[in-house]
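Blinded run. Sample ID left blank on purpose so nobody reads anything into the name before looking at the predicted structure. Input follows.
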Amino acid sequence: MNSVEQGAWTVIETLEKAGHEAYLVGGCVRDKLLGREIYDYDITTSALPEVVQSLFANTVPTGIKHGTISVLIDEERYEVTTYRTDGKYEDGRRPEEVIFVRNLEEDLARRDFTINAMAMGRDGVIRDPFGGQEDLRNQLIRAVGDPVKRFEEDALRMLRGIRFAAQLKFTIEGKTFAAIQYESHSLKQISRERIRDEWHKMLLSSPEIALDLLRKTDALRHIMSRPQTFDVRVQDPWGHGVDPWELAGQWATRAPADLPLRYGIVLTAVRAEEPRIEKTIQELRLSTQLKKEIKSICQFAELGSPREWNDLQWRQLFFKYGAQEVWRGCMLYATLHEPERMPEWDAIVANRKQQQPLWSLQDLAITGQDLMASGVPAGPAIGKVLQRLADRVLREPERNRQEDLLRLVREWGA
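Blinded prediction complete.
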């Protein structure tokens, strides 16, 4: 048992000694049964929030309105939530109010899927009123109770279900799947940030499973800007006789689990044009850095085979995009055309990286101060001369010596 789990059991023991029920609950129980790595230990208890606060020295009222107190032990944070049921959901996202209850089963009944509606006590016994253990054995994602009601309460649960299916490689149970199809339109109520976060987790697990389910449930339209549909009898852009959305899932899954790379592969596979790429990444409210990385990968898709790049092109691409982006560009090519040679491409990029003479203007053997001392006027001219010198060094790496660069400047009359 690691120290983080030990801390969770310490919290539970403290609550029990004060006369309250307390259990590990939700994803940590699921992952413990599956033997997966656990990142967060959530605790459910019969103790009211103010009682939880009184029992521990360091607490944060993280979500006290909804019964959640964060308990801090040895720099670890444990969310402790009072047994509750949810009131009416008016916006398809969150309950207007919560009602504290004294019964564990009532609390578990409000949860999304059976595999997340289990609790474990210090005795090691699993409290499982909705068959979560059986669904784990059968590799099923099943809603607790009426799936339509669960998704009406919080539409994001539909994407969570698809994400769990992708992460665990489980099947979505029939009624639950039908309910996602029926209710997927209500995803329009969910913030783009919450949708984006679920989509990113899908991309980094099994995009092939996720994209298949997203398409079949029509949830994809709430992630990708106006997702294209392809009839391969009429339109077969890759000549494989396969719908490009299927190819997108297959290719992204076999690529390294790198978020910008997998984004770029999906957009490339479905032949997304620049306006659609821009609309998609804007609507999902991606970070500036991630937007830049995705656009760079899509640009690499237009550069053709890296096997045809000469030495100068390699150096220029490293200088313009950086090592990580060049690696992604090569992985994109390998994923689409030579998946069995990915390790070879990894080695090729690493070898080329070692030979790179210039990564930025700061790597030049001359500075702006040197240029001004040699007579180049301060201002925009300095940057232009440095860029011109960089272009020359990329072509002739042996030129990157101060005396050579100053000689060039004098020859240019800069």
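Unblinding after everyone has recorded impressions. The chain is about 50% helix and 10% strand.
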